[in-house]
Design goal:
cytoplasm, alpha/beta, 31% helix, 6 helices, six-stranded mixed β-sheet, binds 1-O-pyrophosphono-5-O-phosphono-alpha-D-ribofuranose, HGPRT, nucleotide-binding, 24% strand
């Protein structure tokens, strides 16, 4: 069995054991059965054992995303909005953001990568999947989970400029300002400034894991080894 599968298996056993031993209260078990997992149970989630610290809780994310959706809806009112999500990290943020929008929009995706399995940018952007239709004439809103060096965004903005879009704006949930090397790229909507740590959860990964966590946190050093 792969190392991560063993960890997952162990995590699930821990949760089952806590329920069996009634460490988790019956009322909370009922909540879990009704699909609204309690905060404690979420922290017991299989991969949460590798989390050193929760940086943004689910409640904080929910509130911020709603505020952002309202602001964006006001700014794009009356415009043909095309929301372009950058796979894969932005999926959780994007779906929550769009669910809270008050105006109509179209959706498309691009898949880009510059991190691979590590925690540092390779510096070059790899297009794994391009837009599926022509964005010409549309007001494009790029939706990112996180801006780190700014390399991906700089490349993306100049790429979309060649497509005759009416405008190109950028929205990100997290901005790691301290790590920016591309300082001349404007970010139009930012959820939170992110500490200079490698973060996971709410769509963000380390080697494709942890995207499923409902909060944003940083990993224990041993989880990288
Ligand atoms: O500002 P930068 O240094 O360019 O980093 C930001 C990019 O890195 C992350 O994607 P990643 O390559 O990790 O792919 P993923 O979304 O599939 O996890 C993130 O979603 C951004 O697209």
């Amino acid at each position: 069995m792969a190392e991560m599968d063993v960890e997952l298996e162990q995590g699930l056993k821990q949760v089952a054991d806590l329920i069996q031993r009634k460490v988790i209260e019956p009322s909370k078990r009922r909540e879990a059965e009704e699909t609204e997992l309690s905060e404690e149970m979420k922290l017991q989630h299989a991969w949460s054992c590798n989390i050193e610290r929760v940086i943004f809780t689910e409640a904080q994310l929910k509130k911020k995303v709603k505020e952002m959706a309202i602001q964006i809806s006001k700014d794009f009112e009356g415009k043909q909005l095309l929301a372009v999500g950058i796979l894969t990290g932005a999926v959780c943020f994007m779906t929550d953001l769009l669910k809270n929008m008050l105006i109509p929009y179209q959706i498309d995706f691009m898949s880009l990568s510059s991190y691979g399995k590590g925690t540092t940018s390779s510096g070059s952007v790899n297009v794994k999947q391009d837009l599926s239709f022509d964005p010409a004439g549309k007001h494009v809103l790029i939706i990112e989970d996180l801006i780190d060096t700014g390399n991906t965004l700089k490349w993306l903005k100049s790429y979309l400029m060649t497509k005759n879009c009416a405008s190109v704006k950028l929205c990100t949930l997290l901005d790691k300002k301290a790590r920016r090397t591309e300082t001349d790229v404007a970010v139009d909507y930012v959820g939170f400034t992110c500490p200079d740590e490698f973060v996971v959860g709410y769509g963000m990964d380390f080697a494709e894991n942890y995207r499923c966590l409902p909060f944003v946190g940083c990993l224990k050093p041993e989880a990288y080894q």
